[in-house]
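Preliminary data (for renewal application), 2-acetamido-2-deoxy-beta-D-glucopyranose complex.
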Amino acid sequence: MVSRKHPCAIAIALFFAVMFSHAAAYDPLDPNGNITIKWDVMSWTPDGYVAVVTMTNFQMYRHIMTPGWTLGWVWAKKEVIWSMVGAQATEQGDCSKFKGTIPHCCKKNPTIVDLLPGVPYNQQIANCCKGGVVASWGQDSSAAVSSFQVSVGRSGSSNKTVKLPKNFTLLGPGPGYTCSQAKIVPSTVFLTPDSRRKTQALMTWNVTCTYSQLLASQKPTCCVSMSSFYNSTITPCPSCACGCQNKQHCVNATDSKLSSVVALNNRAKSNSPLLQCTQHMCPIRVHWHVKLNYKQFWRVKIAVTNFNYRSNYTQWTLVAEHPNLNNITQVFSFVYKPLVPYTSKNDTGLFYGIKFYNDVLVAAGPDGNLQSELILTKDEETFTFKEGWAFPRKIYFNGDECMMPPPDSYPFLPNSAHRNLLSLPKLVLIFSLLAVLAFS
Ligand SMILES: *[C@@H]1O[C@H](CO)[C@@H](O)[C@H](O)[C@H]1NC(C)=O
Ligand SMILES: *[C@@H]1O[C@H](CO)[C@@H](O)[C@H](O)[C@H]1NC(C)=O
Ligand SMILES: *[C@@H]1O[C@H](CO)[C@@H](O)[C@H](O)[C@H]1NC(C)=O
Ligand SMILES: *[C@@H]1O[C@H](CO)[C@@H](O)[C@H](O)[C@H]1NC(C)=O
Ligand SMILES: *[C@@H]1O[C@H](CO)[C@@H](O)[C@H](O)[C@H]1NC(C)=O
Ligand SMILES: *[C@@H]1O[C@H](CO)[C@@H](O)[C@H](O)[C@H]1NC(C)=O
Ligand SMILES: *[C@@H]1O[C@H](CO)[C@@H](O)[C@H](O)[C@H]1NC(C)=O
Ligand SMILES: *[C@@H]1O[C@H](CO)[C@@H](O)[C@H](O)[C@H]1NC(C)=O
Ligand SMILES: *[C@@H]1O[C@H](CO)[C@@H](O)[C@H](O)[C@H]1NC(C)=O
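Predicted structure:
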């Protein structure tokens, strides 16, 4: 009767199972999120084909930031890339066997990057040349596409001889994505600009890449702190939420030589973050302040702070889960869009900056923060300031889940029976402790 003796152990095992199944590329707030890479063969050539490769980011709130994507694959046979438009292979490889025209790339496993904006028109195609930056679908679906054209040789030039490339890899810009095998799908149908004629690709295959935060980094990259008008205690981010000071190099913000230290470190041109020293060591902190209580409404202030001296977060996104987001009345300074992953639930929303105003969260320092306020309409049946109800259930910054403080440290109402935590908050507590374990 194991189950009677160790119900707790079983519960823990179950929670771990849930944690790790989620870790395996399933995001409950964006269950259909993926990046799809589609190859459309547009024409056959004497020894191969010309294909347009289109990458579409269907993820609602995870974009690809500068320095952009890097796409790789392994050729199934001895293919070469004769030429590319709108992107380039980072290495040519050994083309010594070729006389006359030299291919663009002879590597068995080419690595492709986007071109930078402003390249000559004859090197561009539609949706190319954005430095590999791809918006999230929720933020701007028209900018969630990136394309290039590739002319492939030595592949054969019929749908019977062409073998699909293998082992796709995608950096966006860091690790985290796992790509499926290429699969032949029904040929894409194109409509002419005047919509009077349809054409179709000679052959089409798709690859789907999904994101896992645990593959991207072993530690969280942001954390949540909290405060309220009804309790003067500020609940900080958990200590060592993203790392510990004694183990990681950081810059002391009170250092009088701060700017020279940062300038010197930046000249080192490393890609790793240069963080301001904090007890949580996260590059990003999201603060949720329950600011005011009106008769019918309540007001929340959200502040996002950048502690990374090496990163301007362009086109940043913030996702919050809170049961009252179904009745959000006004949002100041940020754009808000409800995300409805399951039609029965409407408790998750996407926030992002207004273009040219606050769509960039600049590097750590006096300007490295952003703020917004929300007004929510109270629902008489569920609204309460008790038991941390007013605080978010989950926060994501740029598609990565932020570490929350343990529920028993949330600011609570004076005289509220905080010791009589309901079973639900207790479950939440167990869950977050396990999350701490899983991330540490
Ligand atoms: C990829 O995302 C699209 C859009 O959400 C969805 O229709 C498709 O089923 C997804 N593909 C996979 C393999 O999950
Ligand atoms: C292939 O990818 C495109 C997006 O580029 C998508 O619209 C289409 O549904 C995908 N096809 C299949 C069968 O997944
Ligand atoms: C190749 O093309 C022929 C003729 O269009 C078609 O019948 C066949 O299904 C195609 N095969 C593949 C693998 O796409
Ligand atoms: C592709 O990946 C698989 C599994 O990771 C590996 O076994 C195989 O050798 C790779 N194929 C090539 C051609 O690199
Ligand atoms: C940061 O600087 C302040 C003042 O110079 C000092 O008191 C503090 O110990 C320093 N902290 C670290 C982590 O170096
Ligand atoms: C961030 O942007 C500002 C203004 O565009 C620029 O001066 C600064 O060098 C950028 N910092 C980083 C780390 O890219
Ligand atoms: C979800 O809530 C928002 C308000 O926050 C509302 O505008 C939207 O219509 C709701 N959507 C659904 C499907 O209930
Ligand atoms: C929002 O709140 C108002 C006032 O309580 C209520 O009438 C309305 O039904 C609520 N809307 C939703 C989607 O819950
Ligand atoms: C405020 O909340 C903290 C828990 O975060 C609690 O220890 C403290 O007693 C509360 N203050 C009051 C006045 O209730």
